[in-house]
Amino acid sequence: RERLRTEGPLPELRERLGPRSGWTMERVGEVVDLDNLSDWLLSVLFCGTRDLSQGTLVHDPSRAGPKWFWIGWDYDMSFGRLDGELGSSDSLHMNWLFGPAPGPETEARKIILQHLFTTSEPFRQDFARRFVRARDSLVTAGFLDETLSDYERAAAAHGITDVRYQSLARTFLTRRPEILTQQLRLHLTADLP
To answer: Average pLDDT in the 13-39 region?
Structure first.
């Protein structure tokens, strides 16, 4: 019986997807968990992680529906630059997502997302809806207060007394939704409220 695996599936994923000319949202969604892929992208966009290759591609033959998905981790390079200079308005993510690859492209998420954002109006609309829902119902003042309080309690439990990052993270996360809205309006040519 085939088992969950994380090593070496990229060539097989490419083979299962077939030629890019046939990549519709429906076709890609038969192979790749597009909900998971969109959620991963939203998480790195809102967190502003600078490590865009974080996480791993997983193939799980026991899953119902699409068998290919990503597990995100390693968000330690998030919330802009925590050395006192906020990176909340940078264009790193939009350049990665919509810009040309500097060499041969090997990052499956970028290949799939670029293709779907470029060729699939249903995917662009679906992602825009997901973004607005996350922006308006998840990244709220209450969420920030609760999350940052949890971080402060965790720091205290581990004997960490320097919590200057709290105000930097709060500022970053408070500004981030509007900056992303502006960037996505431009790149998705979407009418985001």
So the answer is: 92
**Count of Cβ atoms closer than 10 Å to residue 173 Cβ:** 21
Contact call for residues 82 and 48 (beta carbons, < 8 A): no
| Residue 68 near residue 50 (C-beta atoms within 8 A) | no
Decide if 128 contacts 184 (C-beta within 8 A).
yes
Q: Give residue for tokens 């939009």.
A: 94
Residue with tokens 């981790």: 73
- For the chain, the C-alpha Rg in angstroms (whole number) is 18
Question: Rounded to whole angstroms, how far apart are CA atoms 170 and 147?
Answer: 10
Separation between Cα atoms, residue 165 and residue 107, nearest integer Å? 31
Residue 123 main-chain phi, psi, to 5 deg: -65, -45
- Beta-ladder partners of 56: 71
pLDDT in tens, 91-142: 778 888 887 765 556 778 888 998 999 899 999 999 999 999 999 987 788 9
